[in-house]
Every structure is written in structure tokens, then in C-alpha cells.
């Protein structure tokens, strides 16, 4: 076995070169028969500012992959730009993130999942994301749009006659997840549960809503009825 064959055997986990290439040929045959392709989300993915997200990119019906033979390249065309910028690349023993925190799971890649993880997404991360997967000699590339939106901020306050200004409330608050409507807007519901409603009967509570799309902070006034039922406010807002 010459030096080149020794190196090939080392990279293939000790297999003789002819066995290594046979395994690759079998793998390529399965992928080709299945119609090698990558799949991403059918529509735009939306993520809220500062949230973590995973941009889906998978090889459907993929057999177990030898990831030493797989290459994955992620790039992006950010909003307002036609330049494709490299975000992340992986092949063999090489793995490099050009966007801080960008990563793929090598364990999931073995099962054909090349999805990209992005932490603490910023407005500048919005754009068209490209996922290219290579299993020599096969390759495919798809793209999906990523929209980044500011989340709405909801707080609660109580107005008492003895206080000159509304007082912030920190307990008994539950704010649900953002729900997308069919017309492109979102809504979120926030609840305030009171421990002793009779003590503050007649007090006025305020649901305070702030968002980048609102010119001024919105306040919804609610007066306690004394029934002990939770107060709630449902706030629709546009995220464009």
C-alpha cells in the first residue's frame, strides 16, 4: 500500500481504499435513486428580534451519511443587497462560522439534516438564505427568506388615588406567544391575575403596549369589577 493509499485508508477509518470507494458508490447510488435534493421551508421564516432560530435544510429520505464526505455551505443575500455573503461552511475536518454563533449539528448531519442555527438574531440578519449540500458527485442548493421583526412589549400598571403616578405591577402576569394572523399581522394576549380583588375594588389597571410600529405607547384602561376574574388585553399589531 503506497503513501496515497495509506492516507486514504486513514481518512476512511482504516478501511482498505477499494472498500472505502465501494461504500461511497453504494451511498451515491441510494441518493441518486431517491433523486438527491435539499428541502427548506415552503414559505418565509419569521423570527423575532434577539430570539434564536434554526433555518431548516434537509435531505429528504437520506440514508445514514458519512459526514467526512459531505460538504455544507450556508450563505445569505441580506435585504437591499445582491451580494451573497458566506455565513458558514463545513467539509471533512474543516468547520468555520463567518457569522458569530452560526452552526450546524454534525450528529444531525449524519441523518441528512444540515439546518443552520443562529443565536440572538438581529434586524441585519434578515434576507435570503442559501443552503448548498454536496455529497460528491451530487449537490443541490435551495433558498428561503428570513424575516426579522421586533416583538411587542406589554407591561401592567395600577392607578391608585393615593399615588401620583401609575405603579408598575410585577406579579401575576402571563403573556402568551405571538400568533400570526392570515392577513400578515400578529396578536398577543396578556393576562393579569389578582390575589385579593376585593381589596382594590374600583382601582384602574392599565395594559401598556409599546412597539416600533406604534407612534406612542398605547394604554388600555381596565377597572376592577370585584368579581376576581383575571383581566386581559388582546393587542393586534402589524409587523411589516
Which structural traits does this protein have?
disordered N terminus; Immunoglobulin-like; 240 residues; single chain; 16 strands; 6-stranded mixed beta sheet; 4-stranded antiparallel beta sheet; 2 domains; mainly beta
Report the structural category. mainly beta
Arithmetic mean pLDDT: 79
Rg calculated over all Cα atoms: 27 Å
Major β-sheet strand ordering: 1-8-7-3-4-5
Quote the beta fraction.
Answer: 35-45%
- How far apart the termini lie comes to 63 Å
Q: Give the number of domains.
A: 2
Helix content: 10-25%
CATH topology of the largest domain: Immunoglobulin-like
Q: Please provide the count of β strands.
A: 16
- CATH hierarchy class name of the largest domain: Mainly Beta
Unreliable stretches (pLDDT < 50, length at least 5) are 1-15, 20-34, 236-240
What is the assigned CATH homologous superfamily of the largest domain?
Immunoglobulins
Biggest beta-sheet profile? 6 strands, mixed
Shape: elongated
CATH architecture group name of the largest domain: Sandwich
Protein model, in words:
With 240 residues, this protein is mainly beta. The protein folds into 2 domains: 40-149, Immunoglobulin-like, CATH 2.60.40; 153-238, Immunoglobulins (Immunoglobulin-like), CATH 2.60.40.10. Helix content is 13%, strand content 40%. The protein is built from 3 helices and 16 strands. It has helices at residues 3-11, 17-34, 106-109; strands spanning 45-48, 53-55, 70-78, 85-91, 94-97, 116-118, 127-135, 138-149, 153-159, 167-169, 173-175, 179-180, 185-192, 204-210, 218-223, 231-238. The strands form 4 sheets. Strands 1-8-7-3-4-5 form a 6-stranded mixed sheet. The protein has a 4-stranded antiparallel sheet with strand order 10-9-14-15, with no helix packed on it. Strands 11, 12, 13 and 16 form a 4-stranded antiparallel sheet that branches. Strand 3 (70-78) and strand 4 form a beta hairpin. The longest helix has 18 residues, at 17-34. It is elongated and about 75 Å long. 17% of the residues are buried. The model is unreliable at 1-15, 20-34 and 236-240 (pLDDT under 50).
Amino acid at each position: 500500500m503506497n503513501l496515497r493509499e495509506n492516507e486514504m485508508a486513514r481518512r476512511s477509518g482504516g478501511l482498505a481504499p477499494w472498500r472505502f470507494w465501494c461504500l461511497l458508490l453504494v451511498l451515491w447510488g441510494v441518493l441518486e435513486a431517491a433523486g438527491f435534493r435539499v428541502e427548506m421551508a415552503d414559505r418565509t421564516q419569521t423570527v423575532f428580534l434577539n430570539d434564536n432560530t434554526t433555518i431548516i435544510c434537509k435531505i429528504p429520505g437520506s440514508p445514514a451519511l458519512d459526514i467526512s464526505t459531505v460538504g455544507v455551505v450556508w450563505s445569505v443575500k441580506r435585504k437591499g443587497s445582491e451580494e451573497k455573503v458566506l455565513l458558514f461552511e463545513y467539509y471533512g475536518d474543516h468547520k468555520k462560522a463567518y457569522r458569530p454563533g452560526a452552526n450546524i449539528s454534525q450528529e444531525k448531519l449524519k441523518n441528512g439534516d444540515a439546518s443552520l442555527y443562529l443565536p440572538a438574531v438581529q434586524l441585519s440578519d434578515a434576507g435570503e438564505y442559501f443552503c448548498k449540500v454536496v455529497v460528491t458527485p451530487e449537490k443541490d442548493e435551495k433558498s428561503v427568506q428570513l424575516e426579522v421583526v421586533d416583538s411587542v412589549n406589554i407591561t401592567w400598571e395600577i392607578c391608585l388615588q393615593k399615588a401620583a403616578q401609575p405603579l408598575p405591577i410585577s406579579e401575576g402576569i402571563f403573556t402568551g406567544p405571538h400568533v400570526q394572523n392570515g392577513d400578515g399581522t400578529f396578536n398577543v394576549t396578556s393576562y393579569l391575575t389578582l390575589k385579593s380583588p376585593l381589596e382594590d375594588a374600583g382601582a384602574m389597571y392599565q395594559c401598556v403596549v409599546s412597539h416600533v410600529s406604534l407612534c406612542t405607547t398605547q394604554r388600555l384602561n381596565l377597572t376592577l369589577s370585584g368579581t376576581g376574574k383575571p383581566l386581559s388585553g388582546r393587542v393586534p399589531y402589524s409587523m411589516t
